[in-house]
Amino acid sequence: MADNLVIVESPAKAKTIEKYLGNDYKVMSSFGHIRDLEKKELGIDIENKFEPNYIVPEDKKKVVKELKDAVKKVKTVWLASDEDREGEAIAWHLNEELNLKKKDTKRIVFNEITKTAILNAIANPREIDINLVNAQQARRVLDRIVGYEMSPVLWKKIKLGLSAGRVQSIAVRLIVEKEEEIKQFVSSFNYKVSALFHTSDNKSLLKATLNNKFDSEEKAYEFLNRCADATFKVCAIEKKPEKRMPAPPFTTSTLQQEASRKLGFSVSQTMMVAQQLYEQGLITYMRTDSVNLSDYALDMAKQVIPDMFGKQYLKIRKYATKSKGAQEAHEAIRPTSLERQTISGDSYQTRLYSLIWKRMVASQMAEAKLEKTVIDIEISNDDNHFTSQAEVILFDGFLKLYQVSVDDDEPNEEEISLIPNISDGETLLLQQIKAKQSFNSQPARYNEASLVKRLEDLGIGRPSTYAPTITTIQRREYVEKRSLPAQTREVNVLTLEDKQITKSVEIENYGKENNKLAPTDIGIIVNNFLVENFKDILSYNFTAEVESQFDQIAQGKKDWHKMMSDFYNPFIAEVKNANDNSERQKGERFLGIDPKSGKKVYARIGRYGSLVQIGESGKDENLQFSSLKNNQSISTITLEEALSLFNLPRLVGKYKDKEILANTGRFGAYIKWGDKNVSLPKDIDPYNVTLEQSITEIEKKITKDALTKDLPKTITLLENEPIELKYGRFGLYLSYKEKNFRIPKDIDVATLQPQQAIDIVNGKKKATSSTALKEFSSGAQLLNGRFGAYIKYNGKNYKIPKNLDAATLSEDDVNKIIK
Questions:
Q1: Over 90: is that where the pLDDT of 536 sits?
Q2: Which alpha helices (H) appear in 47-129, and where do they start and end?
Q3: Which residue, 122, 390, 501, 668, has fewest beta-carbon neighbours within 10 Å?
């Protein structure tokens, strides 16, 4: 029997650690926190120095009992939760709830789950750091008070079911203010001028841009007219060496940003995959704001880089952390072994690991050396001049491996081109000059990664809070991800060629957005109310100062009870003032009069979201309602657009002598054909759906109904277990021993033979089942399948609702899903 019990937060972490310890160690999981503030009440004794009232939730009682039973059977308990404040709090709660004896309890921490790190931690235990625990308690208590006191004010002044939070409200404010910037944006344009020159020997072309822009077509035309009679001469050639330095290794924030740009991952997706890599012992701890690398990591770089790239590519650097309020001296995110360039795993894991590996290795490689050439070209009859620039890479250095991406909205005005051999004073021959109308761009909405960067720049939030914050504001439906198709516009172009000026029109695309964060109507209303009535809580400086105070508590420099006392009274005064004196927010806008009925038309917040209402509540009979479309807003919708929403149900046409009606319902857009309701794909608008599109969807429905009428059904037996044909969200598949198998496209399901089913199960096609991403105390598992994450419980698969994020699912969330 083992004499030692090691307790960690997650089963995956437990499995990895168990491999490195002998039979004398038993490793168990607490499945995260085992205690929390009670939910039905405030859970905090305000009068007794804000003492928290912790309870063991119902879904954790079984885990706690198992841990208590295990403690009785061992001599020493090792608390091995994560090394950050949250992990320290988990260790403290375990110590308290399990009634552990100080002499028999040891606290161990490690930055990576490797054999060396685990054994080193066992050899160097410490006590629980109560300062870190208190910093976590202060955050938990303050955030509970804020939510508990502010949310009822929102229920009274706006509508039931709303919530407020310290960091989440600030994140929403940033997004709402960005939307207001966009509304205030006024488009303007200028004319950018570019030229093509021949060298004097007429053998090479040189591209150049003018150092000035013109604010009107007339001025651009005048300039081109002067150039028709001008000569062009090289008046200066400057060559200067430049260096490009590698970026430091990843912090939580920079990993989230780069994974978004390079891999298209959401912030929560990045953290979920990084957690998997960490728990498998492949990378160091993924919640960190440090760019520091250990001597061990630098020694690995000294071996790997010369072997892979050559000695000239190695340059060891030690980076200093500059972020506001950086927490404990963690290490940057890096692979645990640089010799492991690739890993086995799903595509998410392999791609994120590769990104982390490249970034860390590149950070220890030599800088890139370039030569930049700038050529100025004078115009004989004008004070402006053309400039041509080029960069030549003399030594690629770290660029051989890695280059940092930039956001779509970061402009790059500089045009770099290849420059031919050319001499100072050389006269150039003009081929063409173009003056092209160029419109300025509206402010770019945040995506998840750029919002994280903005929060970090403001000193708001910490590595552990970025992903949950962004998930929460979307789950609360204060913010939504929005994609907009590109729009087109005409652009005027003036061209000078052979001393003749011609005008043409080009069509350009603009305004396309993918998965940008935009406030919902209710998000805007809640934000404006909070900013007006809770100026301190919604202040960027206040929120950053609170984070700074948490840091001071973690360092033992500030008493958390004193911090809470200083915060509480002014905050409660704001709550009382808002409750007593603020006006109720109607959340509605009068649009005009309906010409058909003569009734007033309003856009307003309803129980299930934003809607248009024809008629006045309490006054008119037969009120009419219609939900707003995606990308429509109460603040911007017009009367004409509002009335068009009542064009449903719409007669699309007839098919097989039955009418097709397009409509929207509680579950989205659909068409009604006879007694069948057929859901429409998200990219088909019920207001514009064609007869051809409708028939296609109807035939899909007919085929599906015919195929699934008698499903599931057994095709054959294999080892006395049935191979079943089933129909799921994404079509037909085979199921065998709780594993799912895709059916090849070249097999007709209608004539599927038993041997064909056996061949598929025996390896002709791979099963879509996968290793659990997370296990819950109920026995439920979070799995990643072909079409995303899902819950598996007692042999059944459960879809995760759209308003929940797989990466942040709680025990409560999972219990609701499986029930």
A1: no
A2: 61-71, 85-97, 115-123
A3: 668
Which of 138, 142, 106, 139 has the alpha carbon at shortest distance from 123?
Answer: 106
Q: Would you give the distance in Å from CA 770 to the centre of its chain?
A: 23
Task: Give yes or no for a cis peptide into 649 (omega within 30° of 0).
Answer: yes
CA distance readout (Å), 436 to 192, 276, 323, 411, 506 = 5, 51, 42, 17, 9
Q: What is the reported pLDDT for 417?
A: 54
Phi-psi region of 301 (alpha: psi -120 to 50; beta: other; left: phi over 0): alpha
Identify the band that residue 810 occupies on the pLDDT scale cut at 50, 70 and 90. confident
Q: Is 70 exceeded by the pLDDT of residue 131?
A: yes
| The two structure tokens encoding residue 742 | 């895709």
The answer to whether the CB of 701 falls within 8 A of the CB of 743 is no
CA gap 328, 146 in Å, rounded: 26
Q: What is the mean pLDDT of the chain?
A: 89
Tally of residues, the chain: 819
Q: Percent of the chain scored above 90 by pLDDT?
A: 62
Q: pTM for the complete prediction? A: 0.81
Tell me the average pLDDT across 317-345: 81
For the four alpha carbons of 301, 256, 340 and 326, in that order, the dihedral sign comes to: positive
CA dihedral 450, 456, 459, 465 (to 10 degrees): 100
Residues 549-561, mean pLDDT to the nearest whole number: 94
CA separation for the pair 392, 415 (Å, rounded): 14
Q: Is 378 exposed, middle or buried (0-12, 13-18, 19+ CB in 10 A)?
A: middle
Residue with tokens 């110590």: 95
Name residue 653's amino acid.
Answer: G
Distance of alpha carbon 427 from alpha carbon 555, whole angstroms: 68
Selection from 141, 129, 147 nearest residue 51 by Cα: 141
Residues 6+ apart with CB under 8 A from 696: none
CA 85 to chain centre: 23
Could you tell me which residue, 585 or 816, shows the higher pLDDT? 585
- Tell me what the mean pLDDT of segment 378-382 comes to: 95
Residue 87 has pLDDT above 70, yes or no: yes
Two tokens, residue 316: 């060891």
Per-residue pLDDT for 219 more than 70? yes
Q: What are phi and psi of 755, to 5 degrees?
A: -65, -35
What are the angstrom distances between the C-alpha of 365 and each of 247, 308, 311, 359, 404? Answer: 10, 11, 10, 10, 14
Distances (CA, A) of 327 to 262, 292, 492, 660: 27, 12, 54, 61
| Alpha carbon separation from 544 to 49, 196, 567 (Å, rounded) | 24, 52, 14
